[in-house]
Amino acid sequence: MGVLQGDSFWDPVPFSWPLMLIMLAVCLLLTIAFLVWTAVQSDKPDTDPGPLLDRATARDRKKARTVQRRLDADAGRADTSEPELR
Question: Is the pTM higher than 0.85?
Answer without folding.
Answer: no
